[in-house]
Amino acid sequence: MSDGYSVNPAELEAVVKRLRALQQNISTCGANTKYKTDITPDAFGGDFVEARALYSAHGNMQQFLTQTISSIDALINEYGDKTQLVHDRYMGREDDSQATMNQIQGRYV
Predict the structure, then answer these.
(1) pLDDT tens for the chain, residues 1 to 109
(2) Is residue 61 within 8 Å of 39, Cβ to Cβ?
(3) pTM for this entry
C-alpha cells in the first residue's frame, strides 16, 4: 500500500552524478590551494615585521582553505555514497518486485 511517497531513481542517479562532478571540482580546487599558492617569504618584500606577518597570514589562510575544502569533499562524498546506496537499494527492490510479478503472471497464463 502506498503512503504517498514515490522515488524517482533517475533523479537519484542524477543527484549522484552532480555530487561526483562537484566533488571532482572541489578536489581540483583543493589541490590548487595546497600546491599552487606557495609564496616565498621574500615575495613580501624582505625581512621586516610586516612581511613576516603577511607570510604567516598567507600560510594560515592556505591551511584553513585546505582543511575546509577537505571537509567539504568528505561531506559530498558521504552524501554521494548515501544517495547511491538508496538508488541501488530502490532499484534492487524494484527488480525483486518485477520478478515476483512475472512469477505470479506466469502461473496464470
Answers:
(1) 456 677 788 888 899 899 999 989 988 888 888 888 888 888 888 788 998 999 999 999 999 999 999 999 999 999 989 988 988 888 887 777 777 777 777 776 6
(2) no
(3) 0.68
